[in-house]
C-alpha cells in the first residue's frame, strides 16, 4: 500500500510538472501589414529565443479592431493592437476596465517621420481648409483616428459636419479612385497607398494629421490584466523576444533583408516596399516599444470634445509597461 501511495504521488507530481511546463499560448491579432508586424515578427531565425519554450505565439488576422475587442472579451485573443479610439470605447462603452496598455506599435507625426496625408486633386480649386465648405470628404470609418483628424482640422477652421460638409466612408484601397473620379473632394492616405505614383502625380497635400492633431499614439498593444498576472513570466519572455524583433526590423543595417521578408509575406515586388518601409518615410516605432501616453491622452480627450465619447479617461490608470521596461533590461 505504501508503495502504491508513493507511486500515485510521484505520478501526480510528474503530471503537474509537465502541465506547468507547457508553453503559454499567446494569440495576438493584426489587421494590416507592414504597419503591423505580427505575422513576421519572429521570421528572422534566432530572434524568438523563448517561443516554443515558455510561450507559443500565434498571429491571428482580423478585418478590424472591433472584432479583436470581441475576441478579447470572449477569451479568444490575448493581445490586441488597438487604435486609441478602440481602446477608449472598449473601456468606456464595453466596460473592459481590466484592459491594460502593454506596448507601442507605431506613432504618427514624430519628428521628421511620416505623418498621414489628406489629399485633394491637383487640379482642384481647394487651396485652404475653408474651401471644403459644401464639399464631400472621405473617411475610412466614423470615429477612427483618420476620421477624428479630419473633423478636428475642419473644426479649427470653423467647419462642422454635417452642417458645412459631408463625410462618406470607404476603405483605403478605394479612396484613390473616388478622389480622381471626383466622387469626393478630399481623402486620407497612409502607407502603403500614399506611395502610389499615379496618386502622387494627380493629387496634392492640403494638410497632414500632424497639422490637425499633433503627435498621435496611433496603435497600442493591449491585454487583460488577469492574463498578464496569471502568465507574467511567459509574458516577460514574449516581450523580450518582441522587443528584440522590433529593434532588428528598425535597424537600417537589416533593411534589405527586412524588405525581402515583408515582400514574401505580402506577395508583392520588393521594390514597392524598399523606398519607404522602416525608413523615415514610414511611421515611427519606439525602439523600446514604449507608448506616448501623453499623446494617447490628448487623442482620447479629442474624442470626447468631438462627441464620440461621453467622458474621457485617465490613460495612466490603464497601463502596465513593466513588461517592456523589463524587456529593455534583458535586450542589449
What does this structure look like?
The protein has 332 residues and is of the alpha/beta class. It folds into 2 domains: 2-110 and 216-330, D-Maltodextrin-Binding Protein, domain 2; 117-213, Periplasmic binding protein-like II (D-Maltodextrin-Binding Protein, domain 2, 3-Layer(aba) Sandwich). It has helices at 2-21, 65-73, 84-92, 145-156, 172-180, 197-202, 209-213, 225-230, 232-250, 255-266, 271-274, 293-305, 322-330, and strands at 24-30, 55-61, 80-83, 99-108, 117-121, 136-139, 166-169, 187-189, 203-208, 216-224. α9 (232-250) crosses α13 (322-330). The radius of gyration is 23 Å and the shape is globular.
Assign the CATH topology of the largest domain.
D-Maltodextrin-Binding Protein, domain 2
How many structural domains in the coordinates?
Answer: 2
**What's the CATH H-level superfamily name of the largest domain?**
Periplasmic binding protein-like II
Q: Structural class of the secondary elements? A: alpha/beta
CATH architecture of the largest domain, by name, is: 3-Layer(aba) Sandwich
Number of strands: 10
Mean pLDDT: 92
Rounded radius of gyration (Å): 23 Å
Q: Counting H and I runs of at least 4 residues, what is the number of helices? A: 13
Content of β-strand: 15-25%
What is the 3D form? Answer: globular
Amino acid at each position: 500500500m505504501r508503495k502504491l501511495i508513493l507511486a500515485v504521488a510521484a505520478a501526480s507530481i510528474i503530471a503537474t510538472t509537465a502541465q506547468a511546463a507547457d508553453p503559454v499560448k499567446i494569440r495576438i491579432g493584426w489587421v494590416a501589414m507592414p504597419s503591423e508586424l505580427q505575422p513576421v515578427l519572429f521570421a528572422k531565425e534566432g530572434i524568438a529565443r523563448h517561443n516554443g519554450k515558455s510561450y507559443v505565439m500565434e498571429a491571428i488576422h482580423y478585418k478590424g479592431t472591433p472584432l479583436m475587442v470581441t475576441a478579447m472579451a470572449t477569451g479568444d485573443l490575448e493581445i490586441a493592437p488597438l487604435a486609441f479610439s478602440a481602446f477608449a470605447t472598449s473601456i468606456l462603452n464595453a466596460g473592459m476596465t481590466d484592459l491594460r496598455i502593454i506596448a507601442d506599435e507605431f506613432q504618427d507625426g514624430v519628428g521628421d517621420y511620416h505623418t498621414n496625408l489628406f489629399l485633394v486633386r491637383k487640379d482642384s480649386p481647394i487651396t485652404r481648409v475653408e474651401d471644403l465648405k459644401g464639399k464631400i470628404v472621405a473617411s475610412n470609418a466614423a470615429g477612427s483616428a483618420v476620421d477624428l483628424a479630419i473633423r478636428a482640422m475642419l473644426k479649427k477652421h470653423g467647419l462642422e459636419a454635417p452642417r458645412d460638409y459631408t463625410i462618406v466612408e470607404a476603405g483605403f484601397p478605394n479612396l484613390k479612385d473616388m478622389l480622381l473620379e471626383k466622387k469626393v473632394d478630399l481623402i486620407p492616405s497612409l502607407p502603403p497607398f500614399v506611395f502610389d505614383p499615379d496618386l502622387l502625380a494627380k493629387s496634392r497635400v492640403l494638410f497632414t494629421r500632424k497639422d490637425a492633431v499633433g503627435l498621435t499614439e496611433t496603435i497600442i498593444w493591449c491585454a487583460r490584466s488577469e492574463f498578464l498576472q496569471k502568465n507574467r513570466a511567459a509574458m516577460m519572455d514574449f516581450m523580450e523576444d518582441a522587443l528584440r524583433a522590433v529593434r532588428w526590423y528598425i535597424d537600417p543595417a537589416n533593411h534589405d533583408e527586412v524588405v525581402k521578408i515583408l515582400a514574401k509575406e505580402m506577395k508583392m515586388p520588393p521594390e514597392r516596399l524598399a523606398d519607404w518601409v522602416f525608413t523615415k518615410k514610414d511611421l515611427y516605432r519606439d525602439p523600446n516599444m514604449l507608448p506616448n501616453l501623453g499623446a494617447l491622452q490628448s487623442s482620447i480627450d479629442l474624442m470626447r470634445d468631438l462627441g464620440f465619447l461621453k467622458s474621457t479617461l485617465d490613460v495612466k490608470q490603464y497601463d502596465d509597461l513593466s513588461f517592456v521596461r523589463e524587456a529593455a533590461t534583458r535586450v542589449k
